[in-house]
Amino acid sequence: MREINKIIAFYETLKTDAKNACALATVVYVEGSSYRRTGARMLVSEDGRWEGGISGGCLEGDALKKARLSILKGKPNLAKYDTTKGDDHQIGVGLGCNGIIEVLFLPINFELDNNPIEILKSAILEPEIPLITVFKSEKNTAFLGKIFQYKTPNDINFLEEICDIQTLEQEFKSLDKSKNLQIDNHSRLFFEILPSNVDVFLFGHQYDIYPFIEILKWLHWNITVVTEPNKIENKTGINIISPENFDISIFTKNSAAILMSHSLQTDKKNLALLAKSKLKYIGLLGPKVRSEKMLAELKESGIEVNPTQIFGPTGLDIGATTPEEIALAIVAEIKAVFSDRKGGYLKERTLPINERTQEIFNFN
Hints:
It is a single chain. The protein is of the alpha/beta class. The chain has 8 helices and 16 strands. The strands form 3 sheets. It has a 6-stranded parallel β-sheet, with helices on both faces. A 5-stranded antiparallel β-sheet has the order 3-2-1-5-4, sandwiched between helices. Strand 8 and strand 9 form a beta hairpin. The two termini are 35 Å apart.
């Protein structure tokens, strides 16, 4: 989400200069290995500046040329990069990516309220609503590059000339992550679930809370500190709630909490409150014996805590000792939990780091 926010900020800057046109490049298909996955974006201005990225740097140079060409022609353009071939003329060869990447280039018209960036701005406010991009449309070229949010079945009525709308609608309902949809040999869609920010709740006010805030701000995650407002330095971009005004009803499925007051009784009181929630992650700062003591005392008082929610001691085992390193270890563990990963060494992973081939549904 950080990258999308930076792209939008760059767009707003370019929008003030109507002479500086731009184009949005989006990775819409990946087969095999690639540094970036589907949904990676970069916004390119006519004068050669850009924000975001579609690879580790091997494709950006060529992408600048194709983005300018899209701006010049005022039309979408789909480019295919194949780094599986030992062809000296192939962009990206020699870098070992060994994958096929398709990138859609869309010229941006600042005067249109529904241009791709404006739609993207709306989409990040509603990440639960899928974003659909038509990236191949040979039967009706007017469809190419069309991007929209799928809110109701009426939003896909225009596709009825190339597929059965009801079948497509049922397929959409079954998807919970981004996928490529192949309608026929002539039409393909990119069904995208935008990533949601993680909402991190920090219960405490000691000096070790500030490294957390800095890392979370860099990630563009949402930050809420639960403490008395006069006990913490107010920083831009964070929300501060006093304990007496805190209500667990504000938690979402993307919320995580860390108990770090350095007071056993305060942390235990907060844990008793969080036990009523469905949080996926509750981090307990301190040694394992401290966490076990809190859980045992709560159990004796009749409060059961779901063990799958508890991460105590909190953080990945990276040998962290300083407040900054501890914050890094805990944030990394939160990311692993929300990604359904174990957080081990990648070199020991037997499966690919990411899905190697996008699943394609065919509606023939």
